[in-house]
Design a protein that fits this description.
Elements (H helix, E strand, L loop, with lengths): L2 E8 L9 E6 L4 E8 L4 H19 L18 H24 L7 E2 L1 E8 L2 E7 L3 E6 L2 E4 L6 H7 L5 H6 L19 E6 L5 E5 L1 H4 L4 H10 L3 H14 L6 E8 L3
Antiparallel strand pairs: 1-11, 2-3, 3-4, 3-5, 5-6, 6-9, 7-8, 7-10, 10-11
Helix pairs in contact: 1-2
Bound molecules: calcium ion.
């Protein structure tokens, strides 16, 4: 598949541990960013478990003759790939439940997950839970493809906070939906048609809660090379104080 990718992750300026995890599996067309919560160790464990569980299920269901048992049948509204992602998210959630049941010090851990599953160079299936974002950068314009499942975004949608107030709010990190080992969460699934030259950016809120969208757009315009753009975005978040772990992952769709 004609795609280039790059990723950068950094603990930020004020934290010593990094609870973000990511995965790049171009052979599966799968890319994931997950942002763990639950304090030192538990947050790292949560995001890694989720990434590994999603990656495993997508890998096991990659071929038509797969013998793997799905947690849900294929949903005609989501199609095969959308249903694969939803099932993968729910299996990840159940893995978290098993781990919490086995280790009391992991209680309260949770993670976001945002994934891109490329069908081919013309189509991608996106799925996410939480406030890690996916953006599409096309023709020099940035468009956000995901809604944050976060307290501040709900307040903004209700007209009670401005984007600037949301970025500065003490509750800006509070997520309203996550993989936490509780009931299977609702997963937002969306198909995106791709064009050559498109870039998809996946990021944790360590970027988007401190760097406004118009600044992310400027950086992507100035940095056409995915590796350099990933690093420039992380540098920008850290330059703005680096209050949180920050992960950036960019896919560049090339002409077939
Ligand atoms: Ca975070």
């Amino acid at each position: 598949m004609p795609v280039q990718w790059a990723a950068t992750t950094h603990p930020g300026i004020r934290r010593t541990s990094n609870e973000d995890s990511y995965c790049s599996r171009p052979d599966l067309g799968l890319f994931i960013v997950a942002d763990g919560m639950g304090g030192h160790v538990a947050g790292e464990v949560a995001s890694r478990i989720a990434v590994d569980a999603i990656e495993a299920f997508i890998g096991e269901t990659a071929s038509d003759d797969s013998q793997v048992t799905w947690p849900h049948p294929v949903d005609p509204l989501l199609g095969v790939d959308g249903s694969r992602l939803k099932s993968a998210f729910h299996l990840a959630n159940r893995r978290l439940a098993d781990e919490v049941a086995a280790a009391v010090d992991l209680r309260g851990m949770a993670t976001t997950a945002s994934t891109v599953l490329l069908k081919d160079e013309r189509k991608a299936m996106l799925a996410h839970v939480g406030d890690s974002r996916i953006y599409l950068f096309r023709d020099n314009e940035l468009e956000r493809m995901t809604d944050d499942h976060s307290w501040v975004e709900e307040q903004m949608r209700a007209g009670l906070l401005s984007p600037l107030e949301a970025r500065q709010h003490p509750w800006r990190n509070v997520v309203t939906r996550a993989l936490s080992g509780g009931e299977d969460p609702e997963v937002d699934v969306k198909e995106v048609k791709l064009q050559p030259g498109d870039r998809l950016l996946l990021c944790s809120d360590g970027l988007s809660s401190v760097v406004p969208d118009d600044r992310i757009e400027e950086i992507l315009r100035a940095q056409p090379v995915p590796t350099e753009a990933c690093q420039a975005l992380v540098d920008e978040a850290n330059g703005a104080g680096g209050p949180d772990n920050v992960t950036t992952l960019i896919l560049q769709i090339d002409a077939p």
